[in-house]
């Protein structure tokens, strides 16, 4: 009924659609359910920054390095100049008197005036709006979402950061003496869709 040329075009079009659909499904699977969204994710970093030493042993406050966490949606990682506030004076050395490897890397970045390109550890999906300042200014401890960071030698994701996990906290009832109860609120935080999906 149709010409061979037409039949061939139909087969090519169907094959192209199947290929595009397969690639789309594979890409969608990677974007929506990647292992990098799971608890325990620990990407390699350009410098093996040790939170246990800095936040644990030395008790440096989270906001000293992540200075925007109480001001806006992003916690931000510090500029290398923040590191150098201490490390111009404090330069740890090994038993032979040589700079420790990670300190030497830090100084290389500083001398080359090159920013450190950290790999994100705690990433929510692109369709989620998360504002650090709302949480920090509501007296929610950083550890509640990020885990006991002050014990981590290598930064890792403590929790899966999935919607169900966030809602567990948001749905917790307010304390009986919380003034927000007078406004008619009972859950700890908003649970309507537009609070996080904008």
Topology:
Layout: H1 4-32, H2 51-57, H3 62-65, H4 80-87, H5 101-111, H6 132-136, H7 142-146, H8 163-170
Provide a concise account of the structure shown.
This protein is mostly helical and 198 residues long. It has a domain at 1-33.
Put simply, the count of helices is 8
Query: How do the SSEs run, as a string of H and E?
Result: HHHHHHHH
Distance between the termini: 52 Å
Largest sheet: none
Strand content: under 5%
How does this structure look, described?
- With 198 residues, this protein is mainly α.
- It is built from 8 helices and no strands.
- It has a domain at 1-33.
- It has helices at 4-32, 51-57, 62-65, 80-87, 101-111, 132-136, 142-146, 163-170.
- The longest helix has 29 residues, at 4-32.
